[in-house]
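Lab manual, section 2.4: Encoding a predicted structure.

Procedure: take the sequence of the chain (122 residues), apply the prediction step described in section 2.3, and record the output as structure tokens. A sample record is shown.
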Amino acid sequence: MKNGGLAARHCVPCRGGVAPLSESAARNLLGETPRWSLAEGATRLSRRFEFRDFVQAMEFVNRVAEIAEAEGHHPDIAIHWNKVELTLWTHAIGGLHDNDFIVAAKIDRLLDDIADDTQPSG
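Recorded output:
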């Protein structure tokens, strides 16, 4: 399944009671979201974005918030003036779930939709 395939899916509620993805399974899904990185022993999915200025960074964060709310799955967000760091993981299971990769793919699709003058590097 290509990035568009993940981006077309929707998150399903995960309240715990399921095992997090194995490192092997996470690496397979990472192939569909290649601009993201596995972190903390393959229990986190992260990506850093850089924008022209603070306003563009905040516009991006607000669009990410819309995706997160629509999916019911929220990344950890750190903002450093023109840089945004997103970390996805499923708190209820202490690791990665398909939902994390679905949200990452939707964020990648969002970036593809942003005009060239607001496109971040990273």
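Check your result against the sample. Residues 21-118 form a domain with the Gyrase A; domain 2 fold (CATH 3.30.1360.20).
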